[in-house]
Structures are given as structure tokens and as C-alpha cells.
Design a protein that fits this description.
The structure is a single chain. With about 260 residues, this protein is an all-alpha fold. Helix content is about 80%, strand content about 0%. The longest helix is centred in the middle third of the chain and has 26 residues. The chain is globular, with a radius of gyration of 17 Å.
């Protein structure tokens, strides 16, 4: 990993702050971090640097929202997610840096489109109480629900392995299932802690996590925890509609930039 200039480090530090913030507040903020890391660092290596930082953010989120997870939903997703992670690992094993950068850019644009569609449809989603899915929209019930869980699971596993970008996929699935805010945050927190931890051996085997990347993580993690604390403090105060619009715009710009660089 080449020497990082002060300007580049400042960008990475800000992106690390957003990693923590996204875990306890607005999940869409993480897409900006993906674009920054992939633009500042070699694209493949950026996924290895980001993973430990995301795990630290996941731990922060679980500590805050651990009691609100819906475990039946998680157990339905995990087998399909494993398939997606294996597919993403195979892709990373053969793709060069340009292909990975282009793929991350395309994934960011696709996730932005999905997030925009999710926001348009969110008002029509039935919701239950106490963080549980609505009774008439319980995920995984019936053949259609199982197929839906498998489809989202495979896509989420692939995108999180290739670009650490499974958040929008998971968000879309949970919102379509009718989760309220606390159930959404708790289920998502446990999901990504388990999935991201399971990705570590694959990333090490691919050479994406090594001594230099962990040294950089040891410094950047100092910005993740304050970001998580900031997200927790602002979770109930932030104007989410405005912030989501800014995040989407920044993500689209970052995705287009990565496609042009690739």
C-alpha cells in the first residue's frame, strides 16, 4: 500500500467517521465511505481496509440496538447470504483492480437507484408494532417470501463481499417486510456483525487484509467510534429526508467517478 498523503488521510478519516455514523443512524451514509475508500486506495485493497472498520461499527450498533433484532428473519437470510459471499470471493480472486473499481461504481449506482425506489415505496409499506414485521407482510412465510429472502440474501452477500455495499439491499428487504425503526436497526446490526465477521477469513485468504491494512485500520478506527456515538446522539434529531438526498447525490457522483476511473 503506497504512502498516504495528508489530504488522502483526511478523506479516509472523514469516511471512517461516516462508517460509524451509518451504523447507528443513517445507513445510507456508508455509501459515501465506499466511494472515498475506493477512490483514495487501490480498489481491491480498499475493501480489506474497510472491513475491520465496519466490524467495529457493527459492534457499536449491536451494543446500542442488540435487543431489537428479529432472529427468524436473520436465520432465513443467512444460507442465501453465504452463497452470495462465496460468489463475491470468487469474483475478487480473478478480477483486477480496474474491474473491481468499475464494479464498485456500478454497485453504488445500482444501490442508489434501489434506495431511491425504496424511499418512494416506503410510505406504502404496512408496519407492525414493537419493531416486528407487520402480520400480513411477515418475511419468509410462503413460497414467495422464501424466494424473496433467497434473492435478497444472495445479492446482499455478493455486494457486501465485493464492495462492502450490502446495506441498501438489506434495508430494502427489511423495509419491504414492514420493520419499524428499532426492529430495523437491531436486525440490521446483528446481520452485518455476523456477516462481516464471517468475511474475514476470505479477505485474509485473498490478501485483502494484511499487516499494512491493519496498521491503517488501527489509526482510522479512532474515527469510527466517535462517528457511532455521534450517530446515536443524532438518530432522533436529524432531518433524514434532506440527509438521504445529500447521501444519494454524493453516492451517484462517487459511483460515476469510479466508473470513469475504472
Amino acid at each position: 500500500m503506497d504512502t498516504i498523503t495528508p489530504g488522502a488521510f483526511a478523506l479516509l478519516a472523514a469516511a471512517a467517521l461516516l462508517v460509524g455514523f451509518s451504523k447507528t443512524s443513517v445507513s445510507g451514509a456508508n455509501t459515501i465511505s465506499l466511494a472515498v475508500f475506493a477512490a483514495v486506495l487501490p480498489a481491491k485493497e480498499s475493501t480489506g481496509v474497510l472491513l475491520p472498520l465496519r466490524i467495529v461499527g457493527d459492534i457499536c450498533a449491536v451494543l446500542v440496538y442488540r435487543r431489537h433484532a428479529h432472529w427468524p428473519t436473520l436465520w432465513r437470510l443467512f444460507p442465501a447470504v453465504a452463497v452470495g459471499v462465496l460468489a463475491g470471493t470468487a469474483f475478487l480472486a480473478f478480477a483486477d483492480d480496474g474491474a473491481v473499481r468499475t464494479s464498485i461504481g456500478a454497485i453504488l449506482l445500482a444501490m442508489s437507484a434501489m434506495t431511491y425506489w425504496r424511499r418512494r415505496k416506503a410510505a406504502d409499506v404496512p408496519t407492525g408494532t414493537h419493531g416486528e414485521p407487520a402480520a400480513d407482510e411477515a418475511p419468509g412465510t410462503g413460497r414467495g417470501g422464501r424466494l424473496k429472502a433467497r434473492g435478497y440474501g444472495v445479492l446482499g452477500g455478493f455486494t457486501t463481499m465485493v464492495a462492502n455495499a450490502g446495506g441498501p439491499v438489506m434495508s430494502l428487504y427489511l423495509l419491504s417486510a414492514g420493520f419499524r425503526k428499532l426492529g430495523f436497526l437491531g436486525t440490521s446490526a446483528w446481520f452485518f456483525l455476523i456477516v462481516n465477521t464471517s468475511k474475514v477469513p476470505f479477505s485474509v485468504g485473498l490478501g485483502l487484509i494484511d499487516g499494512p491494512s491493519l496498521l491503517l485500520d488501527a489509526v482510522l478506527v479512532l474515527f469510527v467510534v466517535p462517528g457511532a456515538l455521534l450517530g446515536r446522539a443524532l438518530a432522533h434529531r436529524i432531518n433524514q429526508n434532506l440527509f438521504d438526498q445529500l447521501v444519494l447525490a454524493a453516492t451517484v457522483v462517487g459511483g460515476v467517478q469510479l466508473l470513469l476511473l475504472g
